[in-house]
Amino acid sequence: MLTVNIIGAGAVGQTLGYLLVKHQVAKIQAIFNQSEESSKHAIEFIGQGQSVSSMSDLPAADLFLITVPDQKIAALADELAVKTHLRDGTIVMHCSGALTSACLGSLRARECNVASLHPSFSFKNPQSSISQFENIPCALEGDAAALATITNLFTSIGGQVYQIATEKKALYHAAAVFGSNYVITLLQQARDCFLDAGLSEQQAKPVLDALLASVVVNVKQASEPKLALTGPIQRADVTTIHHHLQALTDPLAREFYLLMAKKTLSIAVLDESDKYQIEAVLTSPLPCDTNSLY
After folding, report:
1. 3-state class of 286 per DSSP?
2. Is residue 277 classed as helix, strand or coil in its secondary structure?
3. How many whole angstroms separate alpha carbon 56 and alpha carbon 32?
4. Are strands 63-66 and 91-94 parallel, antiparallel or unpaired?
5. Is the dihedral of CA 16, 18, 19, 20 positive or negative?
6. In this structure, are residues 73 and 96 in contact, taking their beta carbons and an 8 Å threshold?
């Protein structure tokens, strides 16, 4: 059975450690964290392992799993490279979405095989995460000698592992941010507009919930997101688009709408004449004047 040390006792480390033990694919040997209390809490949650007070106390292992914030990974890797007894061929991986395995370069120099694996999953609460981690897409890149072992390990605990090119990792992460974080931004903007339109918080939330639920269903059923597109641009409803732009009196909200509308126009299936009319409204919108609506 694979032996594992975990560096970082937060939600990611706890969740992955628990799943590795639950599925009996690895033995958690030791956990290192800046807070010893957090390490002990993680061990209690995972049900296995021992707390160590320094990197030097970490025993040799088949896999070192680094689950700390992005800004700490490189420094911890450097410390691990000089303070720990590492065997040739030891696998060291982190779970950052933005960083590649290159930040583990000091460990590669110690003849370790390094990699990064990023699950498309929000590890907010370990207790709920362990029950939800099923068929989760996981992007993997790194040294060839590490990829097969990591793929088998994470497939065993509920991941769907696919490989990406190291040089494309930042673009991959930007895509993930578009598909998750910025969706929240869009929903917040929609909520603000609902409130400006006179709805209360209690009225706006169920409207947003219903819209989001229907969009999710439509996107899941479509082979790609653009095929689920509805709304005034897909209908070539120039009048409605014009009214929206007149109603959006907040400059930032209006600019946001224009950017989203232009991108939406680029994916909509429309006749060239319809596209031309919409482009005219979006590229030369009239100044804000809500009186023109009445």
Report:
1. coil
2. helix
3. 10
4. parallel
5. positive
6. yes
Q: Listing from the earlier edge strand, what are the strands of the sheet with 2-7?
A: 50-52, 26-32, 2-7, 63-66, 91-94, 113-119, 136-142, 159-163
Q: Which residue in 68, 140, 69 sits closest to 101, CA to CA?
A: 140
Are 131 and 191 found together in one domain? no
- Check residue 284 and give its pLDDT: 78
- Show the 3-state SS of 104-164: HHHHHCCCCEEEEEEECCCCCCHHHHHHHCCCEEEEEEECHHHHHHHHHHHHHCCEEEEEC
Q: Where are the alpha helices (DSSP H) in 223-271?
A: 238-247, 251-267
With contact defined as beta carbons under 8 Å apart, do 114 and 108 qualify?
Answer: yes
Point out the domain boundary residue: 146, 168, 190.
168
Pairing status of strand 159-163 against strand 50-52? unpaired
Q: What are phi and psi of 168, to 5 degrees?
A: -100, 5
Does one domain contain both 64 and 104? Answer: yes
DSSP letter (8 states) at residue 110: T
Say what the pTM is: 0.85
H or E element at residue 67 = none
Task: Give the integer Cα–Cα distance in Å for 51 and 58.
Answer: 9
Q: pLDDT by residue (tens digit) across 149-188?
A: 999 999 999 999 999 999 999 999 999 999 999 999 999 9
**What is the three-class DSSP state of 218?**
helix
Query: How high is the pLDDT of residue 83?
Result: 84
**Which residues are paired to 116 by β-bridges?**
94, 141
Six-digit token string for 9: 């006792």
Residues of the chain with pLDDT under 70: 285-294
202 C-beta neighbours (distance < 10 Å), count: 7
Q: How far apart are CA 86 and CA 105, in angstroms?
A: 14
Residue located via tokens 């409207």: 207
Same domain, 204 and 158: no
The answer to whether 61 touches 3, Cβ cutoff 8 Å, is: yes
Q: What's the domain range around 72?
A: 2-168
